[in-house]
């Protein structure tokens, strides 16, 4: 067995702390071949599609990969910008903002990087580069506020898979969720209040989360429960009454039942029930992407207006907003505890001093 070497190993090298933020990933370009490559990797992940492998192999390769890439490429081209995919651009901005905040707190000893679960930059490549730069303590923060096996556990799988190829593993901490973190909840509540300040309040506020097959919930995934809790906490913070908001689930894929109520069907039914103005926010997406910009911002707007709705507003994701970056920084700081403060070696006490000076 050949293991991947840690590059530039030397005795007495500094123990750096690495913070790796991750998100789902995105195709390299909004084209059919790029989408085919991306969707093949994504939809081959057994955490995403829990169907017996050999049955799924036929469906994926003979049906889905012959239909979906073209359709998805068209959708992606509507959100693509000069800098590329919004998800990539925003994740890079988040990395930069977090690096700046953590350098202020702890000095040069903390390295922040980002990686994508599917496509580029791949988790294994970024981890390799971080270890090569002297990172011996690694904190991984998937930017999925609500835990789901399809996203969070799959990210862990990618890390674990990479670690099977290494001789010298770093110390590892992995954040599985932050759905009820008070700073995350405040950031969402503030974003909504700020929107109300400039646009007024709609009749209904819709909290729309990415769906999953209902079967995953009945098999024990806590995702649904965490989504409902995020909504409840934000609604409490805003003082909303039960009839002022709804939680719905978007982005269905395939024929089986997914978490209900569905975002599109809910929007279709609202005007007839007297709700002609809505505001939609997607708290499960830490960065705007195809599923928010195109699906919620465009497609669902059409659905609502065609059904007799009059006013439809999408409230952007937290992206690299200051409030969001402050919340993530606090989550990171909490999870670095003992690596930055309270340790016994010189490097650690230096970090603690630097941190103390800032507060
Ligand atoms: C096939 C099943 C899928 C499951 C289960 C699923 C869960 C899930 N996904 C996200 C976040 C994102 N998904 C995105 C795109 C996307 N998702 C699926 C399918 C499932 N997702 C597909 C096929 C696609 C590709 C786009 C398409 O062809 O329609 C994205 C956007 C990526 C981007 O580049 O913009 C995100 C983000 C979560 C949080 C989740 C479970 C909780
Ligand atoms: Fe998805
Ligand atoms: Fe979608």
TrEMBL record:
Enzyme's top EC category: lyase
**Enzyme nomenclature, EC number:** 4.98.1.1
- GO CC terms on record? cytoplasm
Q: Which GO terms describe its molecular function?
A: ferrochelatase activity; metal ion binding
Pfam families, per this entry? Answer: Ferrochelatase
InterPro entries, per the entry? Ferrochelatase, Ferrochelatase_AS, Ferrochelatase_C, Ferrochelatase_N
Q: Which pathway does the database say it acts in?
A: Porphyrin-containing compound metabolism; protoheme biosynthesis; protoheme from protoporphyrin-IX: step 1/1
Which keywords are on file for this protein? Cytoplasm, Heme biosynthesis, Iron, Lyase, Metal-binding, Porphyrin biosynthesis
Q: Which GO terms describe its biological process?
A: heme biosynthetic process
Q: Which domain of life is it from?
A: Bacteria
Physiological role: Catalyzes the ferrous insertion into protoporphyrin IX.
Protein family per UniProt: Belongs to the ferrochelatase family.
* Cited NCBIfam families: hemH (TIGR00109)
The protein's name is: Ferrochelatase
Record lineage: Bacteria, Pseudomonadati, Pseudomonadota, Gammaproteobacteria, Alteromonadales
């Amino acid at each position: 067995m050949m293991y991947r070497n840690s590059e530039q190993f030397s005795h007495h090298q500094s123990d750096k702390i690495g913070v790796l933020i991750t998100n789902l990933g995105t195709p390299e370009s909004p084209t059919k071949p790029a989408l085919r490559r991306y969707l093949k990797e994504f939809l081959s992940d057994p955490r995403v599609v829990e169907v017996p492998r050999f049955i799924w192999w036929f469906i994926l390769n003979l049906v889905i990969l012959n239909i979906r890439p073209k359709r998805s490429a068209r959708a992606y081209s509507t959100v693509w910008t000069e800098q590329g995919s919004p998800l990539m651009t925003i994740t890079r901005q988040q990395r930069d903002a977090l690096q700046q905040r953590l350098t202020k707190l702890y000095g040069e000893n903390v390295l922040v990087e980002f990686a994508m679960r599917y496509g580029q930059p791949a988790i294994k490549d970024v981890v390799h580069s971080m270890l090569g730069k002297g990172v011996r303590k690694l904190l991984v923060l998937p930017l999925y506020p609500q835990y789901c096996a399809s996203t969070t556990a799959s990210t862990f799988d990618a890390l674990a898979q990479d670690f099977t190829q290494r001789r010298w593993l770093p110390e590892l901490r992995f954040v599985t969720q932050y759905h009820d973190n008070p700073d995350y909840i405040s950031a969402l509540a503030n974003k909504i209040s700020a929107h109300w300040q400039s646009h007024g309040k709609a009749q209904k506020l819709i909290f729309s989360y990415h769906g999953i097959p209902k079967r995953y919930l009945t098999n024990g995934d806590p995702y649904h429960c965490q989504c409902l809790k995020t909504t409840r906490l934000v609604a409490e913070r805003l003082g909303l009454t039960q009839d002022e908001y709804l939680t719905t689930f978007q982005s269905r894929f395939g024929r089986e039942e997914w978490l209900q109520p569905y975002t599109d069907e809910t929007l279709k039914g609202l005007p007839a029930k007297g709700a002609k103005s809505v505001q939609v926010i997607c708290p499960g997406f830490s960065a705007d992407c195809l599923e928010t910009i195109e699906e919620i911002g465009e497609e669902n707007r059409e659905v609502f207006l065609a059904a007799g709705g009059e006013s439809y507003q999408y409230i952007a994701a937290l992206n690299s907003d200051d409030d969001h970056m402050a919340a993530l920084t606090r989550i990171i700081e909490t999870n670095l505890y003992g690596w930055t403060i309270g340790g016994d070696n010189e490097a650690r006490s230096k970090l603690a001093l630097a941190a103390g000076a800032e507060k």
